[in-house]
Design goal:
Length: about 350
């Protein structure tokens, strides 16, 4: 049986080896050209990472592929190829909410590829400070969750900071209950980020109603605590379980099986047009009847679709709000540019957070 199996597999494996040899030669040719691109960029002081260009490359290849590789496969493969090429041009660093093993770290690797140099930070504030101070070229921060809504601290910092949004990623969130033993024996406390605890409320109420719940700075921090204390269970990812040597006592405990968190990539350079973009902005209006309708009218008049509308108290005055809005298109698209110009005339305050390739 083994001889017959091997005789049938050998010619197929030989063909794969031949193709692999061709691929490695072509990848090295590609990398050499990427180095030449890097020299040109360096001469003109152009940024190494251009999200719109990478999105255009991936979209073109997805269109070209006739299968069996699907679009997601093409995206995953080419992100790593382009990340490796980028690292040859110049090391790229991204700050994220740490420690290692967080969903923010997972989002960073999925967006930038594994050749990125990650810089774990203790808070979202520190992520912003690291990029503003030049310690990292980019930052990765959560902005909203499909179950719990907006991440308030990120919205506040986007208002205050001069950094721009250059990209986004919607990451499926899979919460597991992790312990040292893989059981709940001896567990007296469940630790996680406050958002994760909220996203697992029904499961915790049903299966662990009398166990203390403690909010900590991140799910990875909870996993680190559980690795040191057998009485602690952590809500965290598969990556955190592996990193901290924990066992999965119960998998997928989030209340919403389709739970997702949207992350945005922040930096100093604006992203160009990719052909499939969105623009994020913050506006406020005077406290008067019909103010919000007047604010949104220019978008409808110029045919610009709004995909997100979130309000936050302005914390100045009485009953005044900032509105966080996402619209389809790039700020350089004629219709979007006209709508924003008209909007600016009607708004008491307008800040464009960035135009960037849309992940949806």
């Amino acid at each position: 049986m083994d001889d017959e199996l091997n005789s049938k597999l050998k010619p197929l494996r030989d063909r794969i080896d031949e193709i692999d040899a061709q691929l490695i030669a072509l990848l090295n040719q590609r990398a050499q050209i990427a180095l030449e691109v890097g020299e040109v960029k360096k001469h003109y002081n152009a940024p190494v990472f251009r999200p719109e260009r990478e999105q255009q490359v991936i979209s073109r290849l997805q269109t070209m592929s006739e299968g069996p590789l699907a679009g997601d496969h093409i995206s995953a493969i080419w992100r790593e190829i382009m990340a490796a090429s980028r690292s040859l041009e110049q090391p790229v660093t991204a700050a994220y909410l740490g420690p290692a093993g967080t969903y923010s770290e997972e989002a960073m690797y999925e967006y930038f590829g594994h050749s990125i140099e990650g810089m774990p930070c203790l808070s979202i504030d520190e992520v912003f400070r690291s990029v503003e101070a030049g310690g990292a070229q980019f930052g990765v921060v959560p902005v909203e969750n499909s179950t719990e809504g907006a991440v308030s601290r990120t919205l506040d910092l986007l208002l205050q900071s001069q950094l721009l949004i250059g990209g986004e990623l919607a990451l499926p969130i899979r919460h597991n209950l992790l312990t040292q033993s893989g059981t709940l024996k001896g567990v007296t406390r469940v630790c996680a980020h406050a958002q994760a605890i909220a996203q697992c409320q029904r499961w915790l109420a049903t299966h662990m109603p009398h166990v203390e719940r403690q909010a900590v700075s991140s799910n990875a921090e909870a996993a680190r605590m559980a690795s040191l204390d057998a009485s602690v269970a952590a809500i965290a990812s598969d990556r955190a379980a592996s990193f901290y040597g924990l066992q999965i006592a119960h998998p997928v405990i989030q209340d919403d099986p389709h739970n997702r968190t949207r992350f945005v990539m922040i930096g100093n350079a604006p992203a160009g047009r990719s052909g499939h973009d969105q623009t994020s902005l913050i506006v406020s209006v005077k406290n008067e009847p019909g103010a919000v309708f007047k604010l949104l009218e220019p978008l409808a008049r110029h045919g610009v679709s709004m995909t997100r509308f979130e309000s936050r108290p302005a914390r100045v005055g009485t009953w005044e709000y900032y509105f966080y809005i996402d619209v389809e298109g790039h700020r350089e698209d004629p219709a979007v540019a006209d709508a924003l110009a008209a909007l600016e005339k009607k708004a008491a305050f307008l800040k464009i957070l960035g135009s960037y390739p849309c992940s949806r």
